[in-house]
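Teaching assistant's notes for section 4

Start the section by putting this record on the projector. Ask students to predict, before seeing the second block, whether Anti-sigma factor ChrR (Cupin superfamily) will look compact or extended. Collect guesses on the board.
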Amino acid sequence: MPETTRESLTSGGWKTLPFEPFREDVTIHWIQPFENDQPGVALLKYEAGASVPRHLHMGLETIVVLEGTQSDEAGDYGPGSLVVNRQGTEHSVWSDTGCVVLIQWDRPVKILQEETV
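Reveal the predicted structure now:
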């Protein structure tokens, strides 16, 4: 059995997991935090209208959309979508409807421009 297991994520199993603040209107459930040069793995829950400002990928980022729609400048990604962002790419992310994604980062991203109010 794996060291860390989360069951039934694609059928709503994430709904019973504890989430904590990550960014404004975005919460996180860490499955594997970044430590000792190990990749980070987490669930991110975006409220409707939430966004993450333009950022640079310092390593590979892989996302699976579990619920709702996540968007970036290249398009909209619904449930079951796989999004792979290579090292050196940049984009911003938002969700008009709200969404939950499973995300794996090789390295933390670098925020390029904070949102202004």
